[in-house]
C-alpha cells in the first residue's frame, strides 16, 4: 500500500494514522512525498495507491497505475467543502473514475453527490469519514498536547483566523488559480468566474477586518494562518505594525485550533475540524451567495454578517466562554461527516477496503515490453516538471513546493508513531525506515 502526501503540515498526521492502521492489519506500507512516490511508481511491485482526489490532473497517473497492475482508492479529500455541487464536479473529467477501484468520502452528503453525478460507472462509493476527523477527536487530544502547550507558551490566549483564499491569492500564480476539466466550457466557466468574484469580495473584507479584530481583543493575540496554497505576503502586509497580529503557518492546524479561544473563517474545512474538536467557531459572512457558499463550514459556526456583529459576538464569547453546537448544527455535521463514536474513520476505511476486496485480486505479471512502454510514458510526463526546476525565474514555484513538502525523516515519523501509540494504546512495534528520498516504509 502506498500513501502519498502532498501538503506535509495538513496531511502527515492523518496519513500516518491511516498507514499505521494498515500496517496493523498486515499491509506492507510505504508513505512519502508525492514527487518521490511518482518517481518510484514503475519500480514497485503491485500495490494499492491512495489518492486524495480524482481530479483531471490525476487521470494519466491512474491509467498508468492500472496498466502496471496496481489498484487505486480515492479518499476524496475535496468533497466536504466545495464551492457548489456543479463547480465541484466540473473539476473532474466525465470518466474521472474509470481507473479507480473504490471511492471513499467524508460522509453521506458527498457520497450521495457522487452517486447522483452519473460519473461512478459502477465504482463502489462508501462514506467512511476521513483520517483528518480522527485527529480532532477527544481520544487523540493527548497526541497534540505537547504542541498545544508549546503554542500557549509562545502566544498565550489567542483568536485564530484560518484563511481559505488559495483560488484568488495563489502562491504560484500570484493571483487566481482555478482549474476545471476540459468539458467545462462556455456558461459553466462564466459561472466559475462569478464564483471567483464572490471569493475576492470576501477576501477584501477579511483584509480590512483583521486590524479591527486585533484591536478588539488586545492584549490577546490574533493568529492568521494562511491556506497552504496562499501567498502569505498579503497577510504579512495586513499584520505590519500591529504588535498582536502574527502570521503563522507551522505544523498541523489541529493544535492551533485546539489551543484557540475562537476560530474565525469563511467556508474553511478547519471550521468543521474545530466544531468536532470543540473550539467555538465564528463564520464571517459579509458577502453571501446561496450558489457559492457551502452550507456546512459556515453553518457549524456562529454566523455574523457585518464587522460590528462579529466584533460584538467575539467579545461576548471571550467573556462568557465556549459556545457548544446546537442540535441543528450537530445533525448537519453528522450528515456531512461520518462520525461513528465507536470507530476511527481510519478503521472504517480499511473495513471498506476489505468489503470491496481491494488488494486481494490475483497479481498479474506485466510483460517487460508493456512495462517499458509505460515507464517511458511516465518519464515523459515527469520531464516537464523536472525541467521547470532548472529554469531561471522559477523561484516562486520552487518556494511553493518546499512550502508544501519540506521532507520526511525517520525521527519525524517515529516520534509521531510513538504519540499515536501513547494516545490509542495501538501500533506497538511499528517503526519507520527510509527506503529512498522522501519514501518511508513502515516495518
Describe the protein's architecture and organization:
β1, α1 and β2 (29-33) form a beta-alpha-beta unit. The longest helix is centred in the middle third of the chain and has 31 residues, at 187-217. 47% of the residues lie in helices and 13% in strands. It is of the alpha/beta class and 443 residues long. The model has no long low-confidence stretch (mean pLDDT 90). The chain has helices spanning 8-24, 34-40, 59-67, 85-90, 108-117, 131-134, 141-155, 187-217, 233-239, 253-259, 269-277, 295-299, 307-320, 327-336, 345-355, 368-390, 395-404, 410-424, and strands at 2-5, 29-33, 48-51, 71-75, 102-105, 125-127, 158-162, 221-225, 245-247, 262-265, 280-284, 302-304, 432-436, 439-442.
Quick structural gist:
The protein is an alpha/beta fold and 443 residues long.
Rg (C-alpha, Å): 22 Å
Number of strands: 14
The helix fraction, in percent, is 40-55%
The total number of structural domains is: 2
* Mean pLDDT level: 90
Which strand-content bin applies to the residues?
A: 5-15%
- Shape descriptor reads globular
Helix count?
18
Distance between the termini: 13 Å
Secondary-structure-based class equals alpha/beta
Q: Which strands sit side by side, in order, in the main sheet? A: 9-8-7-10-11-12
Task: Characterize the largest beta sheet: strand count, sense, and whether it forms a barrel.
Answer: 6 strands, parallel
Which parts are unreliable, with pLDDT below 50 for 5 consecutive residues or more? none
Amino acid at each position: 500500500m502506498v500513501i502519498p502526501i502532498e501538503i506535509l503540515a495538513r496531511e502527515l498526521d492523518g496519513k500516518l494514522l491511516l498507514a499505521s492502521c494498515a500496517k496493523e492489519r498486515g499491509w506492507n506500507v510505504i508513505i512519502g512525498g508525492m514527487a518521490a512516490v511518482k518517481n518510484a511508481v514503475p519500480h514497485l511491485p503491485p500495490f494499492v495507491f491512495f489518492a486524495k482526489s480524482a481530479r483531471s490532473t490525476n487521470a494519466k497517473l491512474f491509467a498508468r497505475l492500472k496498466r502496471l497492475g496496481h489498484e487505486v482508492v480515492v479518499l476524496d479529500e475535496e468533497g466536504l467543502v466545495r464551492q457548489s455541487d456543479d463547480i465541484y464536479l466540473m473539476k473532474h473529467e466525465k470518466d474521472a473514475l474509470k481507473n479507480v477501484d473504490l471511492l471513499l468520502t467524508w460522509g453521506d452528503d458527498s457520497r450521495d453527490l457522487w452517486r447522483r453525478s452519473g460519473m461512478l460507472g459502477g465504482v463502489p462509493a462508501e462514506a467512511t469519514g476521513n483520517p483528518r476527523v480522527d485527529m480532532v477527536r477527544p481520544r487523540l487530544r493527548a497526541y497534540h498536547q505537547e504542541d498545544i502547550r508549546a503554542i500557549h507558551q509562545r502566544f498565550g490566549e489567542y483568536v485564530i483566523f484560518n484563511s481559505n483564499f488559495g483560488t484568488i491569492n495563489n502562491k504560484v500564480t500570484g493571483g487566481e488559480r482555478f482549474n476545471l476539466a476540459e468539458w467545462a466550457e462556455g456558461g459553466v466557466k462564466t459561472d466559475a468566474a462569478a464564483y471567483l468574484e464572490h471569493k475576492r469580495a470576501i477576501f477584501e473584507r477579511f483584509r480590512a477586518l483583521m486590524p479591527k479584530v486585533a484591536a478588539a481583543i488586545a492584549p490577546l493575540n490574533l493568529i492568521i494562518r494562511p491556506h497552504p496554497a496562499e501567498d502569505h505576503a498579503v497577510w504579512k502586509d495586513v499584520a505590519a505594525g500591529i504588535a498582536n497580529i502574527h502570521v503563522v503557518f507551522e505544523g498541523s492546524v489541529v493544535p492551533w485550533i485546539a489551543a484557540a479561544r475562537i476560530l474565525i473563517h469563511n467556508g474553511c474545512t478547519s471550521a468543521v475540524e474545530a466544531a468536532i474538536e470543540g473550539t467555538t467557531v465564528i463564520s464571517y459572512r459579509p458577502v453571501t451567495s446561496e450558489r457559492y457558499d457551502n452550507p456546512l463550514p459556515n453553518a457549524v459556526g456562529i454566523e455574523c454578517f457585518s464587522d460590528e456583529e462579529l466584533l460584538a459576538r467575539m467579545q461576548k464569547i471571550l467573556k462568557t466562554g465556549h459556545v457548544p453546537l446546537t442540535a441543528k448544527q450537530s445533525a448537519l455535521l453528522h450528515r456531512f461527516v461520518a462520525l461513528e463514536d465507536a470507530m476511527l474513520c481510519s478503521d472504517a476505511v480499511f473495513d471498506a477496503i476489505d468489503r470491496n476486496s481491494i488488494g486481494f485480486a490475483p497479481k498479474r505479471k506485466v510483460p517487460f515490453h508493456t512495462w517499458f512502454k509505460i515507464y517511458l510514458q511516465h518519464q515523459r510526463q515527469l520531464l516537464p516538471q523536472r525541467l521547470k526546476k532548472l529554469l531561471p525565474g522559477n523561484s516562486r514555484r520552487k518556494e511553493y513546493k518546499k512550502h508544501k513538502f519540506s521532507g520526511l525523516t525517520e525521527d519525524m515519523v517515529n516520534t509521531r508513531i510513538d504519540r499515536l501509540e501513547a494516545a490509542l494504546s495501538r501500533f506497538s512495534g511499528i517503526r519507520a525506515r527510509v527506503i529512498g528520498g522522501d519514501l518511508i516504509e513502515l516495518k
